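job 3f2a | input accepted
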Amino acid sequence: MKKSKCLAVIPARGGSKGLLHKNIRLLNLKPLINYTIEAALNSHYIDEVVVSTDSEEIARVAKSAGAEVPFIRPVELATDQAASIDVLKHAVLYYEQEENTSFEHIMLLQPTSPLRNAHDIDEAYQLFINNEGDSLQSITVTDTHPYLLREWTCGKLEPYLKEKADNLRRQDLSEMYILNGAIYIVKRDLLMIQNTMTGSNNYGYLMPQERSVDIDNELDLKWAEFLIQISK
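job 3f2a | predicted structure (232 res):
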């Protein structure tokens, strides 16, 4: 079996409740998925870029952008309930069983993170390799600290964190980070044998907020387009 280092999987389901045809909606005159395909193809470390989709239309757009689309994703992996880990495992099994190719590392690149670039991918991968990580996720600073969160039930407001911490000022709160959904890296065996994407030696790659936009609705799309325009 041929052995390669890194397989990048771009999951792009045809159905989307929040934003119709989200993965191929035009963002600054270019299909949304193309941004992720181009970033992956420009990486120095990715050996294969594959789009996993159940849509022939998305497959056509992805192929024209340079990605491999060697299969159409099974119906059972194209529902709202389908887990990303199962989509990744399906892609890995395809390459091992049909292409006789195995990959040491699997990278998940969601097409809804169009502002993540090849430099981010390469830096994240270098961090993962240099620290001999089991897994890695990209993160960004969040403006919402858990201390500020509230539960609202029948009009009654209660702190989400039950520990007593009265009168803390915002500037006294520690900096917190949130997964931005742009880059996930995991060792093949951790994914396929242990059925997880997070190992004990897990790392975070910090990205700036302006490249951490996650497209979920029309407002996100407009915000990303604005950020693209002002960065020119």
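job 3f2a | The radius of gyration is 19 Å.
job 3f2a | closed
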